[in-house]
Every structure is written in C-alpha cells, then in structure tokens.
Design brief:
The complex is a heterodimer of chains A (about 375) and B (about 300).
Chain A: E1 4-8, H1 9-19, E2 24-27, H2 34-43, E3 50-53, H3 57-69, E4 74-78, H4 80-96, E5 100-108, E6 114-118, H5 123-128, E7 137-139, H6 144-161, E8 164-170, H7 171-175, E9 177-181, H8 187-190, E10 227-229, H9 243-256, H10 259-263, E11 267-269, E12 276-280, H11 283-297, E13 302-306, E14 309-311, H12 315-324, E15 327-332, H13 338-346, E16 351-352, E17 355-356, H14 365-381
Parallel strand pairs in A: 2-3, 2-4, 4-5, 5-8, 7-8, 12-13, 12-15, 15-16, 15-17
Antiparallel strand pairs in A: 1-9, 5-6, 7-14, 11-13
Helix pairs in contact in A: 1-2, 1-6, 3-4, 11-14
Chain B: H1 3-6, H2 30-33, H3 49-64, E1 71-75, H4 79-82, E2 90-93, H5 99-109, E3 114-120, H6 121-127, H7 129-138, E4 143-148, H8 183-190, E5 194-199, H9 203-215, E6 220-225, H10 229-235, H11 241-248, H12 253-259, E7 280-284, H13 290-293
Parallel strand pairs in B: 1-2, 1-3, 3-4, 4-6, 5-6
Antiparallel strand pairs in B: 5-7
Helix pairs in contact in B: 3-9, 6-7, 7-8
The chains are: A alpha/beta (about 375), B alpha/beta (about 300).
The structure holds thiamine diphosphate, iron/sulfur cluster and magnesium ion.
The site of thiamine diphosphate has 18 residues of chain B, from helix 4 and helix 6.
Chain lengths: ~375, ~300
C-alpha cells in the first residue's frame, strides 16, 4: 500500500520515521532541521508515543538512548552545531550497542556558520566526530523520496545491528518539495532488534554476540537484570581492562557494521563504458548527473557513481572503479572530505581531480562539466 | 553516646566491601540480597562515605522490593556513580553529567519502571547542572540521589562546585576562592516536588528519606553529604573516615564534647569543614508529573 504526496524533505524524514515505527523523539530546535521535530511534535503524542524537547542536544541524545534501552525505536534530528554536541553519546551508543537514528541536516560550518545554506561539511564528523576508534553507519539520501526510504532503512540497520545510524543530507534536500511515494514498509524493510535468545539466568550474558556479531542486549524492564556501561566491558557487560577482550570488542564492533555496504547499494549512472567517473552524493549527485549528460553529448564517456552510503565506505566498489577509470572527479560541498577517502582507495591508479565547493551554494552542472573538461585538457597537456 | 557506639554498624554485618557471599552462608543479610556479587571487589577506598550510603540504599531496597527486575538505576561518572553497577538490577552507567537525560528517556519510554538516578556533586551539579534543573522542572517521576563529597573523587581530588570556600584541593592549592552551590535549594527552586538532605553519619535517616523519595510521585531529590577520605580528608588534614564522620555531627552536644579527644578534630572551626546544614525533608509539594501530562501511564503503543 502506498500513497503519493508532494512534501518537503524534512517532512519526508518525519513520515519515514513514523512508517518505521519510531515512537520516541527527543530533540533541540535548529535550522535547517526543525521541521522534523515540529512534524513529530504533532504526530507522535497519543498511543503512548513520546515527543520531548530537551534542554540541549547532549540531553536529546541521552534521552534517545534511555528510551531505546526501554525498548523504543528512538531518534533525534539536528544540524552541524547540534551534531557536534551529540558526538559524546554517539560514541556511547556505539560502544554500549544501543540502537538509534540521528538525522543531520547539514548547513555551512564551522561554528554557527551558515544556518540556512546547504553544505556537506559533516561527512568526517559523522565518521570521526566522537573520540576513539568507532565504526559508524552514515546514509546520504539524494532526493526527497530517498529521505523517506533511507530513514526507514536507517531504523532497520540501527535495530538489526544495534548501533547508531546517521542520515546526512543538506539544507536544499531538507527544504525542497518533491512527489514522494509513501510506501508502507514490509516486515523485512522494518527489520527487528537483536535481542536475547534465552531467558534470564544468573550467568546470562547480555553482551554475547549473535551469529552476526551483534550483542544480544535485552530491553530494560523485561525480566532481565544486567549492566550497561560506556566503559570497555566483557560479555557480562562488566567493566574490563583486559587488553585482549578490549581488542576483540573493538574488532567486533567494526565488523558488525559491514552488512550496511551490501544493504545500501550505490546508483551507477552511465558507468558501463565510462572512463571519466564522477563520484557524488546528496544534492550534488543531482547536478553531477546533469553534468554527465552534458559531457556525453560532447562525446565524453562520462558516468556517475552516486553513493547512498558514506560510512562504512563502499571500498571494494570504489577501488575497482578507480582502477578502471582514467579520470575520477569527486564533487562535494566541502573543502575535501570524502574525496580524501577516494584518493586513498585509488592508490594512484587513476588521475584524480576533485571538485570542491564550500560557501553555501550548490555545485551546478555547468561548472562541474567545465571542471571535467579543464581536467581532461590538463591531463592531455601533462608530459 | 560514645563515638564508637554511634558508629556501630546496624545488625546485618559489615557494609559493602566485604568479599562475595560464601556458599555456606545461609541467609544473606539485607544489604547483600541485591548486591551484584560478580562485580566484587568494588572500587571504593576504605573509609569512603559513599560505601555507607550505598549500604543504606541496599538495605532500603531489600526492605521494599522482592525483586529489582522493574527497578532501573542510572548513574553518571564518578566514584559515587560507580555504585549502581553493584546493584543486581537494570543498571545503566552513562556519561559524565548526563544520567538524568538517559533516565528521562527511559522513564517516558517505560513509565512502569521505577527509575533511580545516582549522581555526584561534580556529575550532577557541574557538568550535569543544566540537566538537573530541567529534570526538576519537568517533574518526571524519578528519584535522584546526589552523593555530595564536595570534591571530584574519581579524578583525584579536584575542585568541585560544592567545595567549601577556602578548602584545599589539587586544583585549588591556595584554597578555594569560589562559593559552593546549595544543591537542595537549587533543585527546589527549579521545581522539584520532594527535596531532602541526609548525611552518611546517619545512614538510618538516609534510608528513611530514600524510601520516602521512592514513594513520592514526581521528581524527588535526596542530597546526601558524604566524605572523600582519600582526597578531601587527606588534603585538608581532617583525619580518617571516622574523623570525617564525627565532624559531620559536631553540633550534636554528645558528639561535640568528645571531639576534643580526637587530635585531628581539634579547632575544627578553623578548618574547611562544611557548615552544619539542615537535614531531613526540606520541601514537599504535589503537582502533576510529565508522564501524566503526556498521558503515558498505561498507554503503551
Ligand atoms: C566529559 C568528561 N569530562 C571529564 C571526565 C572526568 N571525570 C570523571 S569523574 C569526574 C568527577 C566526578 O566527581 P563527582 O561526580 O563529584 O563524583 P565523586 O567521584 O566525587 O563521587 C570527572 C571530572 C569525564 N569522565 N568525562
Ligand atoms: S577517591 Fe574519595 S570518593 Fe572516591 S572512593 Fe576514594 S574516598 Fe571515595
Ligand atoms: Mg564528588
């Protein structure tokens, strides 16, 4: 069953969350994400669902994690400055394996920056914003439709893998309106939370991994007594400083997010015979697609690799792409974040000419196409 | 009353810190019934006031509950916060200063749970001060126990927002130039509907106040004065754990008369000891809880 409606990106996010069974939202107002909170403030209350505006973003994330441990599908939404404040609890959620969804509608930074202009400057913050070595999942929808479907997917991944999942999109996608198919997710698309397989006993191990390497932590108040901590812990959930156990835990947490790569596949546009490859995500992928069409008309064998998954990075696909291409152009609205990762994966196998633009306006198809032409000329001229 | 008898542990044996229960021991004492033996040995220093308060909490719980399946303990970071791990319940050891935010989410998600927050003066009043006043304002049905030892114990005895003016800490080597918070008054002003103060010197009184706080519907707050022997006591030359306990009770005539016999407590007035504070229930009122306003009770979706 589904229904088609003309809605805004942020509204699509709220609708996706509701369709995914979200019954708890805690947040703090910030542009350009506030419409998500405002919509959920209207829709969640009643039937036991909770909307609460907290005193700041640290508190919002704390409340989300408390609610998630209480068995709720829980989320928050913010923008750069708030995302920064959430980093501490994102780290906590990763280590303590508490499912949650965090929406970051990116604006220009650093600091208060450009409150209502688009940017893609939080890509590395999503990866490394919290201290320590942390595995993360970050999705990057490129349309209002995809904001809806990837919000649903974010909940599925968060619950199944017991980890925070971040959805990153920019102000333009957040505020533009498009027709959206509001499909009702199937049981499989909703997924379910990894939980205990045995009844409580005194030697019960809440942090023992299941066959997918995901801890089988029960919800609070379901007859299990156990300990949850942000300290390194053993399978009992008790603090440990045993180097071997800690190393194993960190390794498991990193491995367990890998299924996201297969689950959130990239879009490959006119890539079959391409030797000039554009790589983009979010709003930039739309203009990059138009740039590919422009270049194709001129006889350039251009194509687009549009990723919907930023972290964990789809490394195998990207390395293969870089090996087969002559020129790779990563286009993003920052001073160079994902492009550095692509450079690392290319390992010198192709010519790289990233197109970077930070300042609050979207990269246009014309300027991107011109950048590609220029890079091709330079490549030919080079000795 | 002689000092030693005032300190005699109540029937039931030694407090936390003892080894785990031996298999031959027939009936666990009240304090040990809900102790998480697998987590022993605990990390509190000998003489630490937190242990006395924790023991009293366990005793109160044993008198009140058959099982702690439906009771969650949420704590921040600090020596005080660490004690929740030692209770055989649903225990959540969160981040520094933020336990009330987790507890708020948990309680709204599952209103049928009893949620107890354990925090310290650094955790609850410094880094978590903003969350404390907002939790009090919201009047979520939580019980918050703040262990106030007027110092940061866990990190090695630094200045806290509760440290008495003039007191020495590792980050106020010339004596504290600032003025301390009155936690109980702060929380009352922010809208808490039950506010009490207790001291580790009188654990039975704390036990009673803790139970009253658990019974109270709405945000209840118990500040309990404890002593960090390892850092506050040592740095300010206030003697051992027992000396610090007696100093808490120095206005009680029988105790005061005996203090002169303890060399470390001579001329106490010249030392940085906390002023004598009013104990007991400081404020009690009634207004609707946030769960009620949100119609969450008995309405799981
Ligand atoms: C964000 C953050 N900052 C600082 C610390 C270091 N830290 C751990 S416990 C603590 C103070 C605890 O003091 P208090 O709450 O009074 O507890 P006590 O140990 O005195 O019982 C500090 C500063 C931390 N863990 N996290
Ligand atoms: S450092 Fe101080 S507060 Fe911490 S356990 Fe030791 S005596 Fe207690
Ligand atoms: Mg303290």
């Amino acid at each position: 069953m589904s229904e088609r409606q003309l809605i805004q990106g942020n509204e699509a996010c709220a609708r996706g969350a509701l369709a995914a069974g979200c019954s708890f939202f805690a947040g703090y107002p910030i542009s350009p994400s506030s419409e998500i909170a405002e919509q959920l403030a209207r829709e969640l209350p009643g039937r036991g669902a909770v909307f609460i505006q907290m005193e700041d973003e640290i508190a919002s994330m704390g409340a989300v994690l408390g609610a998630s441990l209480g068995g709720r599908r829980a989320m928050t939404a913010t923008s750069g400055p708030g995302f920064t404040l959430m980093q501490e609890h994102l780290g906590y959620a990763s280590l303590a394996e508490i499912p949650c969804v965090v929406i970051d509608v990116m604006r220009g930074g650093p600091s208060t920056g450009l409150p209502t202009s688009p940017a893609q400057g939080d890509v590395m913050q999503a990866r490394w914003g919290s201290h320590g070595d942390r595995a993360t999942i970050a999705l990057a929808p490129g349309s209002v439709q995809e904001v809806y479907s990837l919000t649903i997917e974010a909940f599925r991944l968060a619950e199944a893998l017991r980890t925070p999942v971040v959805v990153l999109y920019d102000e333009v996608i957040g505020h533009m309106r498009e027709g959206v198919e509001l499909h009702r997710p199937t049981k499989r698309q909703l997924g379910r939370r990894s939980g205990p397989k045995a009844a409580f006993s005194p030697d019960f191990l809440p942090y023992a991994p299941d066959e997918n390497g995901v801890a089988m932590v029960p919800d609070f108040g379901c007859g299990y007594r156990f300990h949850v901590t942000g300290l390194m812990h053993d399978e009992r959930g008790y603090p440990t400083s045993d180097h071997h156990k800690v190393a194993q835990l960190l390794e498991r947490l990193e491995r367990k997010v890998e299924p996201a790569v297969a689950a959130v596949s990239p879009e490959r546009y006119r890539l079959e015979d391409a030797n000039v490859v554009l790589v983009a995500y979010g709003i930039v992928a739309r203009t990059a697609r138009a740039a590919v069409d422009l270049l194709r008309e001129e006889g350039v064998r251009a194509g687009l690799f549009r990723t919907r998954l930023l972290w964990p990075i789809p490394d195998a696909a990207l390395s293969a792409l870089c090996r087969s291409a002559d020129l790779v152009v990563v286009a993003e609205m920052n001073r160079g974040q994902w492009s550095l990762e692509v450079e690392r994966l290319a390992g010198g196998s192709s010519l790289l000419a990233p197109y970077l633009k930070a300042g609050g306006s979207v990269i246009t198809a014309a300027e991107l196409a011109e950048h590609v032409r220029q890079s091709m000329r330079e490549a030919v001229a080079a000795p | 009353m002689k000092l030693e008898s005032a300190l005699r542990p109540p029937a039931g044996g030694p407090g936390p810190g003892g080894a785990g229960r031996s298999p031959e021991e027939p009936e666990p004492s009240a304090e040990k019934r809900f102790l998480r033996h697998g987590m022993m040995p605990h990390m509190l220093c000998p003489g630490c006031g937190h242990g006395i308060v924790f023991e009293a909490m366990l005793r109160a719980l044993a008198g009140r509950y058959e099982s702690l399946d439906e009771v969650a303990f949420v704590a921040g970071i600090g020596c005080s916060s660490r004690v929740v791990g030692y209770v055989d319940a649903c225990t959540l050891h969160t981040t520094h200063g933020r336990p009330l935010t987790f507890a708020t989410g948990l309680k709204l998600a599952r209103p049928e749970l009893t949620v107890v927050v354990v925090t310290g003066d650094g955790d609850g009043l410094s880094i978590g001060g903003n969350h404390l006043i907002h939790a009090a304002r919201r009047n979520v049905d939580l019980t918050c126990v703040l262990f106030n030892n007027e110092i940061y114990g866990m990190t090695g005895g630094q200045l806290a927002p509760t440290t008495i003016t003039g007191a020495y800490t590792s980050t106020s080597p010339a004596g504290n130039a600032e003025s301390p918070f009155d936690a109980a008054r702060l929380v009352e002003a922010a809208g808490a509907t039950f506010v009490a103060r207790a001291q580790s010197y009188r654990p039975r009184d704390f036990e009673e106040l803790f139970l009253r706080a658990l019974d109270h519907k709405g945000f209840s707050f118990v500040e309990v004065m404890t002593d960090c022997t390892e850092y506050f006591g040592r740095t300010n030359r206030l003697g051992n754990g027992a000396d610090l306990l007696f100093s808490q009770a120095r206005m009680e005539p029988e105790i005061d008369a005996d203090l002169a016999g303890r060399p470390t407590l001579k001329q106490l007035a010249a030392k940085p000891v906390r002023p004598v504070l009013e104990m007991g229930v400081l404020h009690e009122s009634n207004r609707g809880t946030l769960e009620e306003a949100m119609h969450l009770l008995g309405a799981r979706s």
